[in-house]
Amino acid sequence: MLIGVGTAGALFQHYLPEPTPPCAVTDFHRAVPNSGILFGVNLDWQSESLREHHDNLGHAPAVAVQFSDIPYNNQTWSHTVAAANQVRDERGIMVLTLEPHAGLATITEGVVGRLGDDLRKLNDSGVPVILRFAHEMNGSWYAWGQQPRAYVETFRRVAAMVHRKAPGTAMMWAPNYGGGYPFEGGKYVARRGTDNYRLADTNHDGKLTASDDSYAPYYPGDDAVDWVGISLYHWGNRRPWGNNDVSEPGKFTAMLEGRYNGTAGHDLTVPNFYQIYGTQHQKPVAIVETAAIYTPARAAQGASELAVKSTWWRQVFAADIPSRYPMLKMINWFEWRKYEIEIKDVVDWRAAGSPDTRSAFVSSLPKWLDYANSVHPC
């Protein structure tokens, strides 16, 4: 999901927190709950502070997601520090998504070294960090996409530096959901005859198709990965996307397990992400972003906002989720209203954007969720 990065000033526009005593974070493993699932938010920092979101829900999210470019300058990093200050004062965890929009070649040893130092400072200030580096690398829309060898090498270099310099920071590997792979037509799609194409052709039939593994060529290795993450959205029931459709029963778990077969087609060749990376590789699994599409301009058509969103969150927060997926340790709601290029219109993904949906959402949050008061990083 593409989002904008706010300014440091905007992050503090509504919220001036009281300082709390720092507590240096020295072990990223402490951010993984033994039981329960961390509840988090992917917040539009320019529209709402973390404290305001806490007040709206009646709970302090255990996790907040921040985006930043890399390489970055001092001004860009100040936005991340501003977000981290809010996370610290809510006593939560920051998922930091770093995006190398100028390409993987820009991630030099100097850039990686500075990152390690800066993350150590965040940890020392009391902020546990989970670093989601160059997410959706199996997609064809980012400058770091569909380059298996270069991506794995770069991720491993970043992980080695982070593990050495910032032990309070964990590394997250987070591909795009494999439905639609290899995402033909994107600017950065792997080209036939290249090394990238050959490495992505996992069944060795000379073609890059949906039958190839959409995740495995990009996996950096167990020693470099501490968390695995994936984003699962309800974009609608049929292409073209944008209609206000109530999701089909069982869609959320079907996508997580690579067995979706419904009105939008079938993704039966998509690997079972949870089984492979949660159960077999024994990595804590995060749903880094999730939400259901609601297009306000089409309010007169299809289902209501509450029906669209509540049907999805009832699947995401179903009673059997913790027992069914014991390695699932984090779920973050995508709390944005933004223009989406895929439908050329504004989408309101928020669960707390209006009083009616917010009230219903809060009432639906299950007891098995962990909030910031369950986070004990030091």
Look up the CATH topology. Answer: TIM Barrel
Helix percent reads 25-40%
Distance between the termini: 32 Å
Largest sheet report: 8 strands, parallel, barrel
What is the top-level CATH class? Alpha Beta
Rg is 20 Å
Full CATH superfamily name: Glycosidases
**Strand residues, percent:** 15-25%
Overall mean pLDDT stands at: 94
Along the chain, the helix and strand elements come as: HEHEHEHEHEHEHEEHEHHEEEHE
Q: Biggest sheet: strands side by side, in what order?
A: 1-2-3-4-5-6-9-10
How would you explain this protein's 3D organization?
GO terms for molecular function: mannan endo-1,4-beta-mannosidase activity. The active site is at residues 136, 289. Belongs to the glycosyl hydrolase 26 family. The chain is of the alpha/beta class and 378 residues long. The protein has one domain (34-374): TIM Barrel (Alpha-Beta Barrel), CATH 3.20.20. It is 29% helix and 18% strand. It is built from eleven helices and 13 strands. The chain has helices spanning 8-11, 50-57, 74-89, 109-124, 148-165, 195-200, 251-257, 273-280, 305-316, 321-324, 355-364; strands spanning 37-43, 63-69, 93-99, 129-133, 169-173, 227-234, 261-262, 265-266, 285-292, 328-335, 337-340, 345-348, 369-370. The radius of gyration is 20 Å and the shape is globular. The protein starts with 7 loop residues before the first helix and ends in an 8-residue tail after the last strand.
Q: What topology emerges from the helices and strands here?
A:
Blueprint: H1 8-11, E1 37-43, H2 50-57, E2 63-69, H3 74-89, E3 93-99, H4 109-124, E4 129-133, H5 148-165, E5 169-173, H6 195-200, E6 227-234, H7 251-257, E7 261-262, E8 265-266, H8 273-280, E9 285-292, H9 305-316, H10 321-324, E10 328-335, E11 337-340, E12 345-348, H11 355-364, E13 369-370
Parallel strand pairs: 1-2, 1-10, 1-13, 2-3, 3-4, 4-5, 5-6, 6-9, 9-10
Antiparallel strand pairs: 7-8, 11-12
